[in-house]
Amino acid sequence: MIDTDNVTCDTCTTPSSFVFDASDEVSRGWPRVDIGLNPYKSSFPLLAQREDIAFLDSGATAQRPACVLEAQRSFYETMNANPLRGLYSLSVEATEAIARVRAQIAELLGAVDERGRARANEVVFCRNTSEALNIVAKGFAPHVLKPGDEVAITIMEHHSNLIPWQQACRAAGAKLIYLYPTKTGRITDEEIAAKIGPATKIVAAAHVSNVLGVENPIAKLAAAAHANGAYMVVDAAQSVPHMRVDVNELGADFLAFSAHKALGPMGVGVLWGRAELLDQTDPVLTGGEMIDSVTEQGAVWAPVPEKFEAGTQDAAGIYATGVALDYLVNKVGYDAIAEREHALVHYAMSRMVELPFVDIIGSIYWDQHHGAVSFNIRGIHPHDVASIMDMDGACIRAGHHCAQPLLTWLGVENLACCRASLAFYNDKYDIDRFIDSLNHVWSVFNG
Question: Looking at the structure, do residues 260 and 383 belong to the same domain, yes or no?
Answer without folding.
Answer: no
